[in-house]
Amino acid sequence: MTAAAPSINNTPPMQRPRRQWGRALKALHRLFQDKEDTAQVFEIMRSLNGGATPKGYLRLLRTPGGGRLAYERVELADKLMDRAWLDSLAPGTVGAAYRDFVLGEGLSAEGLVEESRKGIQEGAIDARHPFAWYGRRIRDTHDVWHVLTGYGRDSLGELCLVAFSYSQTKGLGWAVIGIGGMLRAARRGGSPYRRAVVEGFRRGKRAAWLPAEDYEALLAEPLESARRRLGITAPAAYEAIPPELRNPLAA
After folding, report:
1. Cα(77)–Cα(20) distance, integer angstroms
2. DSSP state of 15
């Protein structure tokens, strides 16, 4: 008889962490004091997301093409840092819009990587393990999802994308940030903010499952046709709020 293959769920270095509510809530407070402190987002994810990453990876394996993506294990951060490759993509594509977005906002895939490494054991983020790779994949697509969803980098846009991300990943950390931020924003501006965040959740639920996308192909696709194919509708409730009022979490 052929011996059964060992389960990746039993690999000691990537055991599912216990939820640490105290650490998460402290990080949430720091994040609301400074929305640019991205390291706090990763702290919340590590504290609460528990089994969401392995569940997401195993779901990926069950999708058409997911096995190939998992086998190839492309590191998306490397592609997104390749300015020459991004510049080779045609105007109007997802990749061209992503490049313009990060340049306009002073962001970079490299910066997101460095933020994710803060406060944890050296090498943990870069572990050669399928769950770690999947976690990096979710991290590296955050700003691509900004472009696909049409949400800006203002605090309301970030909250809406957080709600969208929860629908897509089922990571509890996203839910905590979204609910906390929505309640905080609603105290300052009422129901329009709540509607925008709830709309983000619903848009994420209706859309295709983005973690299973081949991002190298997606970035070369025209943005509007990609949105139609993926079922990503317009952010009507978000866009109904004037840009100057989209920072309800600002001090």
Report:
1. 28
2. P
pLDDT in tens, 13-57: 445 567 899 999 999 999 988 888 999 999 999 999 878 999 999
List of residues 6+ apart from 122 with CB closer than 8 A: none
Two tokens at 79?
């592609």
CB 193 within 8 A of CB 248: yes
Strands (E), the chain: none
Q: Which token pair is 84?
A: 């020459």
Which amino acid is located at 190 in the chain?
G
Tell me the C-alpha distance between 129 and 14, whole Å. Answer: 8
Report DSSP state, residue 171: -
Could you tell me the two tokens for 175? 């839910």
Q: Would you tell me how many other CB atoms lie within 10 Å of the CB of residue 231?
A: 10
d(Cα 195, Cα 40) in Å, to the nearest integer?
Answer: 25
Taking CA atoms, 65 is separated from 61, 75, 80, 214, in Å, by: 8, 17, 21, 8
pLDDT at 9 over 50: no
Secondary structure (DSSP) of 60-121: HHTSTTHHHHHHH---HHHHHT-HHHHHHSPTTBHHHHHHHHHHHHT--HHHHHHHHTTTS-
Nearest to 73, CA basis, from 120, 135, 148: 135
**Alpha-carbon dihedral sign for residues 120, 126, 128, 131:** positive
- What is the per-residue pLDDT across 164-199, written as a single tens digit (0 to 9) for each? 999 999 999 999 999 999 888 878 767 899 999 999
Phi-psi sector, 65: left (phi>0), alpha (psi -120 to 50), beta: left
Reference 196, options 206, 207, 186, 211; nearest CA is 186
